[in-house]
Small ribosomal subunit protein uS15c (Pinus thunbergii), 88 residues
Amino acid sequence: MINNLSISSSLIPDKQRGSVESQVFYLTNRVLRLTQHLQLHGRDYSSQRGLWKILSKRKQLLVYLSKRDKLRYDDLIGQLGIRGLKTR
């Protein structure tokens, strides 16, 4: 079991704990932990549902941020190393 999957909290300053970036940061950490859990326990369907809910919430926040401030969105995607939103 790998314990080093969490992202460094130094990416988010202390004064911005409620910002969209910090919320996406914490949700990404939860996604990484749940993904690791589901690799060990593949048939844990309640955890799968929780993961889907977290991913949905993170996506909503990323859509909001991409509409409000594209530069902050691009910077956050780059720092966290997650895939950007699909565009139509």
Remarks:
- The mean pLDDT is 90.
- The first helix runs from residue 20 to 40.
- The domain at 19-80 is CATH 1.10.287.10 (Helix Hairpins).
- Helices lie at 20-40, 45-68, 70-80.
